[in-house]
Amino acid sequence: QGYEGLVEGGDNIKQANWLSVSNIIQLGGTVIGSARCKAFTTRAGRLRAARNLVEHGITNLCVIGGDGSLTGADIFRSEWAGLLEELLQDGQISEEVARQNCRLNIVGLVGSIDNDFCGTDMTIGTDSALHRIMEVIDAITTTAQSHQRTFVLEVMGRHCGYLALVSGLASGADWLFIPESPPEDGWEDLMCERLGE
Question: Which residue range or ranges hold the Phosphofructokinase domain (predicted)?
């Protein structure tokens, strides 16, 4: 469950083995869970997360997420030595454990269906999102044709129109709105004229 799992610990942290990962290759990455974690935004929450990692002897962390997740990872990494020192002073860990876990290695992977990170062809989640969008479009296209109706489909992408643009191109959409190119004044009349044709 992301940082929530780090903070809560317990059954949220477990070793993956062949049995636990069997039959998940066809599932989306969210099979490992995802959660917003307010506690991790506080030092107290990150202290609990550090305690749980040290308890399991984990010093390598792979963070998959967007801006919030990766910013949190950077803060966690920068505080790591101080967090261990605090745990040591509180008697929660020994000097030996602190020494064995003195370095936290983090790999950050951009997980954003918006495909809005430069330097990579496609961020984690984009391809799956596009497949789902195209499945929906394929399903409603015949209905739209048989009923001679126009359907409006909204896809995710708060500040990034990648999913809308690519799925619009792939499906032959008649009209498209993307945040990078807001519509000009009078777009309503132009759209109605285009659809009327």
Answer: 1-184
Residue with token string 């109706």: 149
Domain end among 79, 110, 141: 110
Tell whether 64 is covered by a domain. yes
pTM: 0.75
Mean pLDDT per 10-residue run, the chain (197 residues)?
94 90 80 88 97 95 90 96 96 94 94 84 89 92 88 90 94 92 93 88
Could you tell me if 196 and 163 are in contact, meaning their C-beta atoms sit under 8 angstroms apart?
no
Within a domain: 121: no
Q: Of the residues 11, 74, 90, 114, which is catalytic?
A: 114
Supply 106's token pair: 């983090």
Residue 114 annotated among the catalytic residues of the structure: yes
Asked if the structure places residue 19 within a domain, the reply is yes
Give the 3-state secondary structure of residue 35.
coil
- Pair (19, 101) in one structural domain: yes
